[in-house]
Amino acid sequence: MFKKVVAAISLCTCLFANSAQMNKVSPDEAIEILKNGNTRFLEWKASHPNADKIRLDELSKGQKPFVTINGCSDSRVPPEIIFDQGLGDLFVVRTAGNVSATDQIGTIEYGTEHLGTRLVVVLGHTKCGAVTAVAKGEHVHGNIPALVSSIVPPVKKVKSAHVNEEYGKWLNEAIIENAYESIANILKKSETVRELVLSGKVKIVAAIYDVDSGKVKFLGEHPEQLRLLANIEANKILAKKLQSVKKQETVKKQETVKKHEEPTREPIREQKREKVEIKY
User: Fold this and answer.
1) Whose CA is closest to 82, among 253, 230, 216?
2) C-alpha span between 131 and 126 (Å, rounded)
3) Which of 45, 63, 103, 128 has a C-alpha 20 to 30 A away from that of 140?
4) What whole-number distance in Å separates Cα of residue 186 and Cα of residue 112?
5) Does pLDDT of 266 surpass 60?
6) How far apart are alpha carbons 2 and 241 in whole angstroms?
7) What is the domain partition of the chain in residue ranges?
8) Nearest to 209 by CA among 197, 217, 201
9) Residue 215, helix vs strand vs coil
10) Order of strands across the sheet with 119-125?
11) CA-closest candidate to residue 82, choices 214, 192, 189, 185
């Protein structure tokens, strides 16, 4: 009985905590809050927290969300509803295929560095149209090819492991791989987020929403995150060394050119002086 009371008090604290308090939660605590919210959603016991006039007035002074979510634009996957959260709780980025390109990564940087969210969730979902289109090799036009370009590598990777199999048999695996690819792109392309991850201030995890059941499964960090981060740092060091070598070579070339030019200039000046003196 005592444990149930403590759990109930803890739940109420999470549900109705103000923005400043929620912003201080750890990455693991944030995951638990999202899991609990999804459970309420699944059991049709959603509390719809932080959706009143008091919350509205509080948020007029500023926002302090406790998580940044990079999800898909699919209308069946609204984060605030499936996690039973309210106004100002989630900082959400939504693009078809939950990709991580320049715009999405820049927004994630804002959420982590400026708003202080310590958890980033890349939220994929079953029956994703963007991943399905790539898996089926469908012809797309306009700006869509550029949009789904980052989905192609993870789909190819999964497809190569299922030669001669119909795409429906490995689609869910490709959807998971695409979520991990999105994490990898955040780490590769954002030094800001990468430094926050390396310092332990921010955690990035993948999660998949099942559009049939409504359940969200948290998959954790990228399975090869340590190797990925090590390679990124190694490439940075190599790039700096190459830049230093290139700079030294440039300086040497400039010095060599200068040495060759100096002897030819002086006689020309002397000849010009002589001509001037004779004319005078």
Assistant:
1) 216
2) 10
3) 103
4) 12
5) no
6) 61
7) 2-223, 237-280
8) 217
9) coil
10) 90-94, 67-71, 119-125, 203-209, 216-220
11) 214
Residue 20: both structure tokens together: 């400043």
CA separation for the pair 29, 37 (Å, rounded): 12
Let me know: does 125 contact 74? Beta carbons within 8 Å. yes
All residues at 6 or more sequence positions from 83 whose CB lies less than 8 Å from its CB, including other chains:
34, 37, 38, 41, 90, 216
Q: Mean pLDDT over residues 16-33, rounded?
A: 78
Residue with tokens 């699919």: 74
- Which of 188, 275, 266 is CA-nearest to residue 234? 188
Tokens 């940044």 sit on residue? 68
Q: Which CATH code of 3.40.1050.10, 3.30.360.10, 3.20.20.10, 3.30.70.3450 fits the domain covering 2-223?
A: 3.40.1050.10
DSSP 150: G
Alpha helices by DSSP H, listed for 116-224, are 129-136, 144-148, 152-160, 171-189, 191-198
Cα 236 to Cα 244: distance, rounded to the nearest angstrom:
12
0.85 exceeded by the pTM?
no
* pLDDT at res. 80: 98
Which residue bears the tokens 């609990």? 36
CA distance 99 to 81: 21
CA–CA gap between residue 44 and residue 38 (Å, rounded): 10
Residue the block writes with tokens 């989630």? 90
pLDDT value at residue 242: 77
Pairwise CA distance, residues 95 & 223, whole Å:
23
- In sequence order, what are the beta bridge partners of 67? 90
